[in-house]
Amino acid sequence: MSFIRQVVKTSCRAVIPRRMFMTCGPSPGRLPGGRRGCHEVALTFDDGPDPDITPKLLDLLEKWQISATFFVIGEKVVRHRDIVHRIASAGHGLGNHSYTHSEPHKTSTRQFLDEVRKTRDLLEDIGNQPCKLVRPPKGKLTVGKQVGLWKQGMSIALWNIDPRDYQMQSQQQAVDWGASYHPRGGDIVLLHDNHPWAAHIVRVLANNNDQAGCARYVRLSEWVQR
C-alpha cells in the first residue's frame, strides 16, 4: 500500500464512524463474557466463492468454531449459490465484493455502484437479510465511489493485516506466516478463498489459539455498531 493511501485510510478511520468506514475493529480490551488478555480478530476472505476451496475452508472453520466474513464476487455467486447459502447458514458474514471484480482504474463510478447494487440484491435474496458490508476490489476507491456507497447505505470494510496469501507459492509460506502472526485486538485479516493457502493459515491460527487461547474470531458485522 502506498504512503498516500495509508494516510488517507488513517484519516478516514479517525473522523468517519465505523459503521461507514472500517479498517480495523474496536480497541482491545476485555471481551464480552471473556477474560483479559484475549483479543477480537476478524478473518475475512475475498474473491470467492470457489467450488473447490471454499467448502473445504468452511469445513475447517466449522471444526474450529471460527466465525468469519466472506466478501464474494457477484458473478461467482450466480454460479455457486449453494456455497453462498452454506456460508450464510453457518452463521458467517457475507460481504459485497462487486459483481465482476473489474480493475478499479478501468471501472467508472456508475458501473461500480451498479455492480455493488446487483451483488447486494443477490446476497440479500440468498441470505434473507440485509447485506450492507462492501469491500471494493483491491481496496481502491475514488471519492465519488465512496460517497456513492454511503448513499446506498453501505458500510465500507477494508483491512489492516495482509499476509499476501495470493502471492504465496507453498504451504510452508502460509504456515510460517501463521506462526509469526500475533493477534491484536481489532485486527482485520485479509485472506482469499480462491487460493489454497488461506486454509493453511487458518489451521495454524486455530492451533495456536487452542494452545494459548489468545483470540476470539468474530464477524465484521459485530463491530459495525460499536
Number of strands: 8
* CATH topology description: TIM Barrel
Helix content estimate = 40-55%
Assembly category: single chain
Proportion in β-strands: 15-25%
Radius of gyration: 17 Å
> Helix/strand-derived class?
alpha/beta
Mean pLDDT value:
90
| CATH H-level superfamily | Glycoside hydrolase/deacetylase
What does this structure look like?
With 226 residues, the protein is an alpha/beta fold. The longest helix is centred in the middle third of the chain and has 19 residues, at 109-127. It is globular. α6 (143-151) links the parallel β5 (133-134) and β6. It is built from 9 helices and 8 strands. α2 (53-64) runs parallel beside α8, α5 runs parallel beside α6 and α7 packs parallel to α8.
Q: Which descriptors apply to this entry?
A:
226 residues, alpha/beta, globular
Task: Summarize, please.
The chain is α/β, with parallel strands linked by helices and 226 residues long. It has helices at residues 3-15, 53-64, 74-79, 81-89, 109-127, 143-151, 171-180, 197-212, 221-224; strands at residues 21-22, 39-48, 69-72, 93-96, 133-134, 155-157, 187-192, 215-217.
